[in-house]
Amino acid sequence: MMRMIPLAFALLLPIPAVAGDMAGISRDAVEQHIMPRYAVLDDTSQALAKAASQTCDVAAPALTDAYDAAFDAWIAASHLRFGPSEAGDRAFALAFWPDTRGITPRTLRTLIADADPVAASAEAYADVSIAARGFYALEMMLYDAEIQALGTPEYRCALMQVMAADIANLASAIRADWQGGYAEKLAQPGADGPYRGEAEASQELFKALTYGLEFTSDTRLGRPLGTFDQPRPKRAEAWQSGRSLRNVALSLASLGDLAAILAQGDPGLQTRLQDAFSTALAEAKTLDDPVFAGVAMPASRIRVEALQQSIDSVRDIVRDDLGPSLGVASGFNAMDGD
Amino acid sequence: MTSRRSFLAGMLATGLAPSATWADAGAPRWLSAAGLPDGGFALCGIGADMTLRFRIPLPARGHAAAAHPERPEAVAFARRPGTFAAVIDCAAGREAAMLSAPEGRHFYGHGAFSLDGRWLYTTENDFAAARGVIGIWDADHGYARVGEFASGGTGPHEIRRIPGTDTLVVANGGIETHPASGRTKLNIAVMQPNLSYIDGGIVTETDRLAPEMHKGSIRHIDISHSGEVAFGLQWQGDEDGPALVGLHRRGAPLRLCSAPEANLRAMRNYAGSVAFAANQRHVAVTSPRGGLVQIYDAGEARYLRGETIADACGVASCRGGLLVASGTGDLWRVAVGMARRAEHAALMWDNHLVAI
User: Fold this and answer.
1) Which residues of chain A are under the pLDDT cut of 70?
2) Fewer CB under 10 Å: which end of chain B, C or N?
3) Shortest alpha-carbon distance between residue A221 and chain B (Å)
4) What pLDDT shows up at residue A191?
5) Contact A226 B328 (CB under 8 A)
């Protein structure tokens, strides 16, 4: 069927019905979800820098405990990739992973071989490749036997300490930007800000949830899973520090918290989401495979795949039900991303 | 009794029917992949009057297609990271062959024929090495895989041939993905997109945006009759890019098109498809995320106007202007102030309209 009609008239589209009450979502997300996470990241990162400054013993529990606490805090915030975390590529500098080309070990080897004086201060270190900064580079200093055999102990210690100090600077800069105005812009969106209304603010948060779920399923689990014929256990995230499964569980818990806020206008949907998250978290908690070494054996691989599937069930609900309830464009092409 | 069509189809299969032309396929003007209400997928031929000329099932979601310059033959490519490409005999209305990406490669969804129609070129991912390659297939010998060459970057997406020449232009989007991690982008922090010109299998020119714009993924291109390349950008991460459309002539620097802040922002940092209009002076860019098609002036490299079309993505030139296809099944013939619409309620038009 074909008609001749004035374009302006023909293109008046119905405004999609939005279920629930969007007002308040972004404010609650800022106050209850985002600000507490970046505060903990900042606090634990300062503690990590302090612990690092007091020892050169990379096996000292005071250091590795502080590292774990700060890394935990990062994982809980790692889906919040907008605004202050993206300014100056701060989040990438905190977390350069996956490192598909092995840039992190290569850059570290060069720094150590040259005893590069850039390690003398955190301010100077902010100019090195982001691959040599953050939690994953620091993991190599703390746990990678090959890196620990290079150069002098003094230089390696200085490098480890400057990485921790740099992490602390990044975390406090992100927190400062949130406190210094960005929190308000997201909580009270308006015409002059980066979010012109509650709908745009909610959509940013929805994107963060979607991205976090995708990253945990496709990357944190998908990379070690590889294919049945070619599993890749050594591609698991942070396997050297034994954190692979821990990171999955922490991210799920944090994403579940955000999902509950986004679905607060629809109690039925909120319950279904929480049930799906609980199922996934229960899979993670009963999985006795901290670094996904089991992906290489059929019997244990199936458990990791089950965990991935349970996360994908959450993604289905988020895409099919939560997205429309927030008025997110869900078109055939809009969702495609090519 | 053998019908003319099936006779021709038989001849086509043997490569002995040089007289079969696109007229034998119901003279479609455009091709587009589509989603179907039952969850299936198809490649469709669309006539100049915006009616459906043929619809051939695909095994999974398609993306773009390449039309043979002479024979009524089209190749529909799987959506990334798919590994099939369906050769469609558009005269007989059936699948003539099914190509599979070689081991260790997947298609990106685009391809182009050589000037004489002998070779088909496909953008592919050598995912173990995160290296973009262009696959070469022999269209005269059953689309046998005969080789490949480097695309000049990571994540090659759309590939076009400069009209009247055998120079290929590739949009290397810069984004690394691996089938084991689905469509997740693995290298946003360090991505390096570019526009590459390829002659005889060798990259002869590489053009990049300024280093601080490295998160602007150059994903889609169209080329004017005179060889000017229009490209569409997709900004990654949290980046609000300064432009969504750019223009380029070989040997010259890249030019970004200007647009008022509000119009730029309404596109949500995402260009789904680009096309020169029939007059060759206007460039259209669609954003399904913004539900918009915007028209730019190529000479002045600036924004002219926009139209709201829900889930708009495919765009191609048509007589008097532009044809836009939407995921809601609509085809819009867009000209100044007026539009004509054809509804295909049973189809969700997929990303690209390919002119024949």
Assistant:
1) 1-21
2) N
3) 8
4) 85
5) no
Within this chain, do residues A284 and A204 fall inside the same structural domain, yes or no? yes
Inter-chain residue contact B341 with A3, CB threshold 8 Å: yes
pLDDT at B50: 94
Total CB pairs under 8 A between chain A and B: 126
Cα separation, B234 vs A333, in Å, equals 14
End-to-end CA distance of chain B: 31
Q: Is residue A299 domain-shared with residue A161, that is, in the same domain?
A: no
Of residues B50, B130, B339, nearest to A10 (C-beta): B339
pLDDT score of B93: 83
Considering the domain architecture, whether residues A227 and A131 belong to the same structural domain is answered as: no
Question: B313 at the A interface (CB within 8 A)?
Answer: yes
Question: By residue range, what is the domain housing residue A254?
Answer: 198-325
Q: Is the domain of A146 the same as that of A253? A: no
Among A113, A144, A179, the domain boundary falls at A179
Mutation target to probe the A interface, by most A beta carbons within 10 A, among B190, B287, B308, B322 is: B190
Q: Which of A109, A84, A108 is nearest to A96 (CA)?
A: A108
Give the Å distances, CA to CA, from B280 to A173, A180, B119, B284, B320.
49, 48, 27, 10, 11
pLDDT given at position B18: 53
CB contacts of B50 in chain A (<8 Å) are: 2
- Sequence-separated (6 or more) residues with CB below 8 Å from residue B58: B33, B40, B41, B42, B43, B76, B78, B84, B86
Q: What is the pLDDT of residue A23?
A: 73
The answer to whether residues A173 and A206 belong to one domain is no
Residue with tokens 């003398």: A120
* Least CB–CB distance from A96: residue in B63, B189, B310: B189
Listed by number, the residues of chain B in 57-76 with a beta carbon closer than 8 Å to a beta carbon of chain A are: 63
Class of B20-265 in CATH: mainly beta
Which of A216, A225, A272 lies closest to A247 in space, CA to CA?
A216
Question: Is any Cβ of chain A less than 8 angstroms from the Cβ of B141?
Answer: no
B126 interfacial to chain A (CB closer than 8 Å) = no
The segments of chain B whose pLDDT lies below 70 read 1-19, 336-338
For residues A242 and A292, membership in a common domain is answered with: yes
Query: What is this model's ipTM?
Result: 0.90
CATH number of the domain residue A217 falls in = 1.20.120
